[in-house]
Amino acid sequence: QLQLVESGGGLVQPGGSLRLSCAASGLPLAYFAIGWFRQAPGKEREGVLCISSSGGSRTYADSVKGRFTISRDNAKNTVYLQMNSLKPEDTALYSCAARPNKCAFDWDRYSSWGQGTQVTVSS
Length: 123
Prior knowledge:
- It is built from no helices and 11 strands.
- By secondary structure, the protein is mostly beta strands.
- The strands form 2 sheets. Strands 2, 4, 5, 6, 9, 10 and 11 form a 7-stranded mixed beta sheet that branches. A 4-stranded antiparallel beta sheet has the order 1-3-8-7, with no helix packed on it.
- The N and C termini lie far apart (40 Å).
- 34% of the residues are buried.
């Protein structure tokens, strides 16, 4: 069974950067698409970006275009979310999730989830 663990969250000032990691164990990450989702207090879960098993990426949140990128290192069984030019509205619990091969917009199409890592953007 695939298990996911996120890391890299924290407190950062507006305009700063963070790199989140999603480390997989149990199964080879190479067979899975990985999506990053976020949920702020009082708001619905939102898809951010996804990377397919073949390396193609999709951006689901318009607000992160040009600022966030996603990448994967199958040798390290890890997917990364690079977040630049962070804004206070990016504050949320960020979670990664896996599904076979292809990305999907809807969070309920992902079968494996990590516990999340908190990102807080504040001065």
